[in-house]
Amino acid sequence: GENRPLFYACYNGDSRIAKLLLETGKVEVNHKNKNGDTELTISCLNDNAELINLLIKYHSNIKCINNKGHYPVHIASINDKLETLKALCAHGADVKVQNAIGNQCFSMACINENIHIINYLLTHDIDINYINYSGDSALHQCCILQKKDIIKKLLSLENINIDVPNSYGFTPFIIACKKNDFELAKLILDQNKPVNIDAKTNSGDFPLFYATYYKNKELLQLLFDHNQPNINKNVQNNQGFTPLAMACFRGNENIGRILISDGVDVNIPTYKGETPLMMTCYYRNYSLIDLLIQH
């Protein structure tokens, strides 16, 4: 459908013009444009509670969904429109409805760093650990996007789950390691809540694997310091690479040294039968060859 005069008034957040149009009694409410937006969903781009109240008085549907799968409450949450969200809630809108990928208002406010919306939603009966259709909570999604300020806020919440895997087996901590983000990994470990640092994703990758893959000595040390002597340093990924095999494959002498001096098994082959020594010979990494032969 096309955009109509009421639609433009709402887009501009102009309740005076909207009122004049609605009072004629000749304006159709809940008309959808080509994006599936109604006068109410488009009003949520503004922070005009008076306009929201007016439209609902004239029977605008607070449960309408646009083509992106967003309800009015979602649009307000994404765009940081607190007064609009409050007005919708006052008329019985549900902040727990899901969008097309299964996110609720809380996750949307978090990934868009809308702290006023987050604080308002926390006064409602919401599940801060709620997961979308990919198994991602607000915390997972903020870790993927590396939104540190919001992550700190989430980690400070009493009932936050910090070690749950998503549908692909990624916990927030594994996401931090995959992002090669030392600061984020440390932030999660500093919560003093249980974190399984040996956890594997569905594809068989794990924190120590990422630390060696990215040649991140600082991250490697963090993992060792956090869980000595219990971390499994000989664990293999789905191709059979141990952290040492990965260090040899990547030609990383520093990390190879740390692992070897820490007593890892230097002879574990990959599932194709390649040992760390074979890899270093293939890549002609003389200092690593020396080191492996000594052990």
From TrEMBL:
It holds the Pfam family Ank. PROSITE patterns: ANK_REP_REGION, ANK_REPEAT. InterPro entries: Ank_repeat_dom-contain_49, Ankyrin_rpt, Ankyrin_rpt-contain_sf. The keyword Kinase does not apply. ANK repeats lie at residues 68-100, 239-271. SUPFAM superfamilies: Ankyrin repeat. It comes from Neocallimastix californiae. Keywords: ANK repeat, Repeat. This is Ankyrin.
